[in-house]
Amino acid sequence: MKNEQAKKYGMVIDLDKCTGCGACMVACMAENNVPFKKDETNKLDSITWMRVFQLTNGKSFPETDICYIPRPCMHCEGEHGHSPCVSVCPATATDYSQQTGIVSQIYTRCFGCRYCMAACPYHARYFNWWDPVWPNGMEKYLNPNVSPRMRGVVEKCSFCFHRYQRAMEKAFLEGRRELEEEEYQTACTQACPAGAIVFGDLNNEKHKIHQIVNPDPAHRGRPKNPKAFRLLERLGTNPKVYYLSSREWVRRAGDNYLPHEGSGKGH
Amino acid sequence: MKMDRRSFLSFVIGGAAGTTLSPLPWKLTDDLAIWSQNWPWTPVPEKGEVSYANTTCMLCPGGCGITVRKVGDRAVKIEGTKGHPVNNGGICILGLSGLQLLYGPTRVPSPLRRTGERGENRWQKVSWDEALAWVAEKLADLRGKRLSHTVACISGTDGGTVPRLMERFLTAFGSPNFIRTPSMRDSYEMTLHLMQGAQASIGFDIENADFIVSFGSGILEGWGSPVRMFRANSVWKENGVKVVQIEPRLSNTAAKSDKWLPIHPGTEGALALGLAHVILKESLYRKDFVGTHTSGFDRWSKEVVEEWTPEQVETVTGIDKSTIVDLAKSFANAKKPLAICGRGKGNTAGGIGEFMAVHSLNALMGNINRKGGVWAVPGSDHIHWPEVEMDAVASAGMQQTRIDGAGTDKFMHARHLLHRVPEMINAGDPSLVQALFVLDANPYYTLSDKALLKKAWAKIPFILSFSSFMDETAQNADLILPNHMYLERYEDVPYAEGFNKPFIGLAKPVVSPQFDTLHTGDAILRLAKALGDPVEKAFPWEDYEGCLDDTFGDQWEELQEIGYRVESDFEPGSRNTAFETASRKFEFIPEESKDAAKNVMVKAEGEEPAYPLVLIPYDSPRLASGFIGDPPFMIKTVPDTVLKENDLLVEVHPKTAQSLGISEGKPAVLKTPKGEARVRVHLFEGIMPGLVAMPTGLGHQAYDGYLAGKGINFNDLIGPVEDEVSGLDAAWGIRAKLSRV
Ligand code: SF4
Ligand code: SF4
Ligand code: SF4
């Protein structure tokens, strides 16, 4: 397999199109057997692999403006795969795949020290404080391709890795080694009613994401598209999730920091 | 560089630790599924053969095609159907959550007969035979006493075979009281009827419009067919189509629009006429259309020019006159401008004067029944059942005036006026409704003026709900005859709200019924049979499926195969939807009702100084505010600035809050002429000072612990404001007082 070109799966979310509807959040929960509790208003312990935050331009009425910003795991590459979270995990329960660029989470190995949570600047990781409980009968809709997690482990967005595995299995059965762009798409991308999310291989020039973002290999994938940006670019986390916005204040807010951080306010 | 402690800290950790710990090479071990056997207390989803089943979503009037992924006989995921004419692969947050409704604990498991007091939620399981016999006995008794007209049905939809079977049942039984729940459908239907003489649904060729002025329509909150609107919005972005959103609050739609114009709530109709004024004055209207296809233009334009000058409109709306002039010019100079209205998701009727004012803008631009404009779409014509043969009792019953007054001399053009029913019940002794059926609706939750409603409710001797879920109405009924839920049943969905082509979707069972439920179509047929002739003979079908088969005839198989029927080459204005008014023209001032547009604005209930603020509702795409209660997934996405624990937060401008001495997150009492509630306050720069904004769709009392008791029901704080010309409920808000506690 060594001749195969390594993939770098990533996502670009068009914030001009994103309506803040939250369908991506629910598509993700439904696909990945994410549990829910009776009270989910403490957003610090509310498990949402994909969460839509709200940025505001800080101006007063009527100059106020809002922008919704969906936040999955950024699948940071860091430098040569040293993602902030991967680097601190003492159990090697999370890993950066050089083959796909996906940061994995291996629940069986995770013993819940939560170093990775502290390390992740995007608050993309969540801890299972409780065993998941589905109201009687509801476990019927659980997806057999994704295991429910148990108390004491950390979980996060996997870029719907099981969909990659299924697509690869199918391709191998058909004697192919490569996937077509639409063969592997995440649940949120598929669901977004606004078509705001584009998912694909950043290394593949034929993929839409490559064409939209135009990543600059000389600068760790920084987008050449002037409308595109990454969250907290300056931290050097080298994320593979990009955003597009025609509003300058949005690009500036995203580049520096998320106002919800520090106040702990989720939107 | 701005960086707070948390991200800065993680930067340091990430940088330092990254150099000391080098990760072991680990190859694709995250096969997420193989190991869960080690944890016996977490459920292991059963494996099985994967299949996909297509059907139609029925959770809102959107008419989306959905594809259900199944593993064995379990439904595990709902996705949008690719290539579907309405939603082409997209799906909304509610549609995605459908399986939580299917398998959730809020289902009504079998026919239930009340044992405790109403609303106490104490029930006894009864068999279908027993339950239906009981209903038939009550109905026969009423019919025997010549009280057939006191049976009423509140239905969330009309036009499809199930509501039509219900209507037919009432006709054969002898009651005119089939009442559809209110929505902007009412006002748009009436607008089309009065101005164009069309018996039609409104359709918008939104994908082809090139300038949108929305008078408070929640294009991104769930107005029209939600997924279609989301998709259109993205197309607009790609093509540089401008959207101007007019509403007092920075909603999702306003935030995504090109221009947000905050307006004093309730004055949208005045702004529409202000724009018309400029267009008329500057002679920017399309003379070809106005000259040949309209009538009443001279008188109407004279009035508009005299009464609605930008100066006057500025005073009323709070939007300055130069903005009004600019907007009018941009609108008129666009090739295919489109003006739309119906607040939020369009779950309320609204004033006819406002709708007609907005529709006049489209007429001025000749934007009726043409590309990129407003189309009159004929109602579905798939039902051709034989005329009901009424006996003397039935005809006598059908001669009675409808309890809601719709179609009477006073409200000649209204078809359904549900908000008037509680008052009418309270006025009569004994109650004018002796038996109430509720179908795909949750009036106990959605109707406003709760005091009046509860009083009326108590006066109705028998209430029967057909709900699949234990909603507020079911919980306060005497008998529940649970329908299969939409994923378990066949049913035709005869329209997609706002879609510009005649469309019928078909819901098909994707899983077998999970509980002891019965299709309401079959329940109606069995009731008819139990009543015997003449009611029985109006229903010549073995069962509901037989009725569907018969209704669609040779198209039934194709419909099942494809899952929908759409008239893709439909030309607007071709059939009976062109101008069918007396003048055969578009009537700016309808001959049939010259005063129809008299109330361009209606006042909110309540007076200053007792109620110094104005409370308005807002719809959110993340909350279902119709007859379906939010599934747990949706509630989970609700921000903590809307719901914190069980407390609802109302939005208030910081200045308003400051003048009341209330700060962020603090509790307060919100009082209106119709009710009082304890809330918390969220300060928001995106709301006009002097207003209080409250989300709709919360404050449920029924369902389960994932929904009940969370927040406040907006409908508990408001009452109807009747437009005296049309009879429609034009309430858009209510005066209020907010005080710190
Ligand atoms: S589903 Fe799409 S539009 Fe909705 S919040 Fe997510 S990214 Fe935005
Ligand atoms: S976003 Fe957080 S969890 Fe995801 S790879 Fe980056 S540091 Fe790790
Ligand atoms: S928009 Fe309406 S019809 Fe479409 S998926 Fe959502 S709830 Fe269902």
Briefly say what this structure is:
The complex is a heterodimer of chains A (267) and B (741). In chain A, strands 8-1-12-11 form a four-stranded mixed beta sheet.
Record the SSE blueprint:
The complex is a heterodimer of chains A (267) and B (741).
Chain A: E1 9-14, H1 23-31, E2 51-56, E3 66-71, H2 84-88, E4 94-96, E5 103-105, H3 115-119, E6 126-127, E7 154-155, H4 161-173, H5 187-191, E8 197-201, H6 208-213, E9 215-216, E10 222-223, E11 228-229, E12 241-244, H7 248-256
Parallel strand pairs in A: 1-12
Antiparallel strand pairs in A: 1-8, 2-3, 4-5, 6-7, 9-10, 11-12
Chain B: H1 5-20, E1 50-56, E2 65-71, E3 74-80, H2 93-96, H3 98-102, E4 112-114, E5 123-125, H4 128-144, E6 151-155, H5 161-173, E7 178-180, H6 184-196, E8 200-204, E9 211-217, H7 226-239, E10 242-246, H8 252-256, E11 259-261, H9 268-281, H10 287-293, E12 294-295, H11 297-307, H12 310-317, H13 321-333, E13 337-344, H14 352-364, E14 374-378, H15 392-399, H16 421-427, E15 435-439, H17 443-446, H18 450-459, E16 462-465, H19 472-475, E17 479-480, E18 491-493, E19 503-507, H20 520-531, H21 544-552, H22 556-562, E20 564-566, E21 586-587, E22 613-618, H23 632-636, E23 643-644, E24 647-652, H24 654-660, E25 667-672, E26 675-683, E27 691-695, E28 734-740
Parallel strand pairs in B: 6-7, 6-15, 9-10, 9-13, 10-11, 12-21, 15-16, 16-17, 22-27, 24-26
Antiparallel strand pairs in B: 1-2, 2-3, 4-5, 4-17, 8-14, 18-19, 19-20, 22-28, 23-24, 24-27, 25-26, 25-28
Bound molecules: iron/sulfur cluster (3 copies).
